[in-house]
Amino acid sequence: MENAIKNRIPIHVDLQPNRDEVYSGICLKDNKEVFIFICFNEETIEFDGFAILRSQEIERYRYWDKEELDEIIIDNHSDFIDKLPLDKMNSFNECLYTLREKKLIAIFTADDNDSYFVGKIENLNDTDLTLKLISETSEWLNSIDIRIEDITYIGFDTSYERELIKNVLQQ
Predict the structure, then answer these.
(1) Ordered domains of the chain (ranges, CATH)
(2) Which residue from 43, 57, 149, 165 is spatially nearest to 104, judged by alpha carbons?
(3) Closest C-alpha to 34, from 68, 103, 84
């Protein structure tokens, strides 16, 4: 993984058998607790935002092959380099504390891999966070409490979150 990080090599990260998920992107940090990467959006064929996974969930990864690399029409990964204080993001809790100022984040939890919560962190302590939810139509909803140990994926700064918050600001 050190080579992939150092040389910004796109990879596929396979979470089988823990979860039936494969994520793609460029790894920025990998330690015993967190795996932080620039997401690759297969629909728009460009890099789009960041994600954080629990390192222990990752069973294997592989470099993209030549055909996959050739599919990248606009290589915009440099837009995301040096945007995060990676030295302060060594655990899920540290990552969440760093993300408190983000306008929106997306969170997947262990009990449901098919749906996720999008919102702004309202409160945070070492075991739980309160997320002020936002709807798909950019309307603020109620808040939800989430145990940090139940979080499996944190996404942020993607085009989806940027569009949601832009619509809130225009209302």
Answers:
(1) 1-90 (2.30.30.100), 93-171 (2.30.30.100)
(2) 165
(3) 84
pLDDT value, residue 169: 58
Task: Tokens 């890099």: give the residue.
Answer: 47
Residue 121's beta-bridge partner residues? 131
Beta-carbon contacts of residue 131 (< 8 Å; ≥ 6 apart): 105, 107, 117, 119, 120, 121, 122, 143, 144, 145, 146
State which amino acid sits at residue 155.
Answer: G
Q: Among residues of the chain, what percentage have pLDDT more than 90?
A: 68
* Nearby residues of 136 by Cβ (< 8 Å), 6 or more positions away: 164
